Amino acid sequence: xxxxxxxxxxxxxxxxxxxxxxxxxxxxxxxxxxxxxxxxxxxxxxxxxxxxxxxxxxxxxxxxxxxxxxxxxxxxxxxxxxxxxxxxxxxxxxxxxxxxxxxxxxxxxxxxxxxxxxxxxxxxxxxxxxxxxxxxxxxxxxxxxxxxxxxxxxxxxxxxxxxxxxxxxxxxxxxxxxxxxxxxxxxxxxxxxxx
Length: 195
Known about the structure:
Largest sheet: 7 strands, parallel
Strand order of the largest sheet: 3-2-1-4-5-6-7
């Protein structure tokens, strides 16, 4: 009779997001879609910020996603907050801005140090929106739970990039998940270049 292999040793627990707060930096096409998914699939509270975002615009974005403007308890479904509140209260922060002279280097060490130690930072937008050396410093020091990154200052990542290290999540460092800008190579995106 074959033996059942032992499951791998559990080295840490998974962090659930149900009922937690998602902070979106930017609420354009992708930001509002991500907000809708996390709101409806996980029951997350959605807060958002960008330099010119108003509550009336956020309300229109909620409507455009088939959501009511007001959520349970009368709070806005997509609630506009200050930049400081977004960084200091979100359980997951997700970046959704266009890269421009105005947004390049927008997220700095000052912002990153406001993030709760239990929170995650996600950037699938553009690498240069975040001061990379500041993010590396915060993650090396284990100041936040982790980061998921699909975009970087330099792409593709060089073989010796610190992002490619295998020791993230050990020795007090934050966890880091990196992917190679996979949205760029999604089939419909590539086909769009040739149509």
